[in-house]
Write a structure and sequence with these properties.
The protein is an alpha/beta fold. Helices cover 40% and strands 14% of the residues. It has a five-stranded parallel beta sheet with strand order 7-6-5-8-9. The longest helix has 20 residues, at 281-300. The model has no long low-confidence stretch (mean pLDDT 96). The structure holds phosphoric acid mono(formamide)ester (CP) and norvaline. The site of phosphoric acid mono(formamide)ester (CP) has 8 residues, from helix 2.
Length: 301
């Protein structure tokens, strides 16, 4: 039904070339060299939020408008989705009004269902298992500060959540080494490591954060309590994985610190790290805008 539609559902199902070209477009948009003047004039994006958002919502809305397009926002509690209208029906209806659908939801199967029944591109704006839009901003930001990511070493210390899973996809697609330190109960799904291995990725799991971080070019973490995950760290296993100055000192002297935000200072990261000289989190947040625009252009032109 939707064979020719370019959905942005997950990094593992998009080619390396396409992902790299989206980042290149984002860089051109940021430095003003892209030859685009309202290329999405007359187009509309619907954004469905079943979870809260600040960055994703604002960057998509501002980005779409900067490209000449328009946006409609549907919070699930204020739309018929919240009253049980099916994803399949919603997809077919929205496809008659808008040119693209961005959805932030719980299970990945909901995004897949939306894409199955939509005749316009569907963008994954975060699910319980992935956050692909964020990773494009993250790779772009790392490269602005530290040069090509290919062959570099990124260390994750914290919960093995949706962001950790998308970092695994990114490691394979952008050819960097990824070390993940997390409690074994909270590790990303073993299928992701198997997928990375099968695709010649360099992704390793560690129990000791200091080992994972040793000489790394980047240290990254995320909240210990993801949206919709009320059972986060019930046994208080995450404390040793907090990114503090002592942990950062194991990394390369030029290492950067990244976090998709929102952050919880004193939990997954200390204030001296996130507000310190190695932190590039504000550029990372800004780059959501440029990569969002590049994703919209990839889907719609
Ligand atoms: N990083 C990120 O996706 O932030 P929001 O939840 O604010 O959209
Ligand atoms: N892991 C976090 C990311 C927020 C952008 C969450 O899912 O809540």
């Amino acid at each position: 039904m939707t064979a020719m539609v370019k959905h942005f559902l997950n990094l593992d199902v998009i080619s390396k070339n396409d992902l790299r070209s989206i980042i290149n477009t984002a860089k051109d948009l940021k430095n003003g060299t892209a030859s685009v003047d309202k290329p999405l004039a007359g187009k509309a994006l619907a954004m469905i939020f079943e979870k809260p958002s600040t960055r994703t919502r604002v960057s998509f809305e501002v980005g779409m408008k900067q490209l000449g397009g328009d946006v409609v926002i549907l919070n699930s509690s204020e739309s018929q989705i919240g009253r049980g209208e099916t994803i399949a029906d919603t997809a077919q209806v929205l496809s008659r009004y808008v040119d693209c659908i961005m959805m932030r939801t719980y299970g990945h199967e909901k995004i897949s269902e939306m894409a199955k029944f939509s005749t316009v591109p569907v963008i994954n704006g975060l699910t319980n298992s992935s956050h692909p839009c964020q990773l494009l901003a993250d790779v772009m930001t790392f490269e602005e500060h530290a040069g090509p990511i290919r062959g570099k070493t990124i260390a994750w210390s914290g919960d093995g959540n949706n962001m950790a899973s998308s970092w695994i996809h990114a490691a394979v697609k952008f050819d960097f080494n990824l070390r993940i330190a997390c409690p074994k109960e909270q590790a990303p799904h073993s299928e992701l490591f198997e997928w990375a291995n099968k695709n010649n990725g360099s992704v390793k799991l560690f129990n000791e954060p200091a080992e994972a971080v040793k000489n790394a070019d980047c240290v990254v973490t995320d909240t210990w309590t993801s949206m919709g995950n009320d059972e986060a760290d019930p046994h208080n296993h995450l404390a040793p994985f907090r990114v503090d100055k002592a942990l950062m000192d194991h990394a390369s002297v030029n290492a950067v610190f990244m976090h998709c935000l929102p952050a919880h200072r004193g939990e997954e990261v200390t204030s001296d790290v996130i507000d310190g000289p190695q932190s590039i989190v504000w550029d990372e947040a800004e780059n959501r805008l440029h990569t969002q625009k590049a994703i919209l252009l990839w889907c719609l032109t």
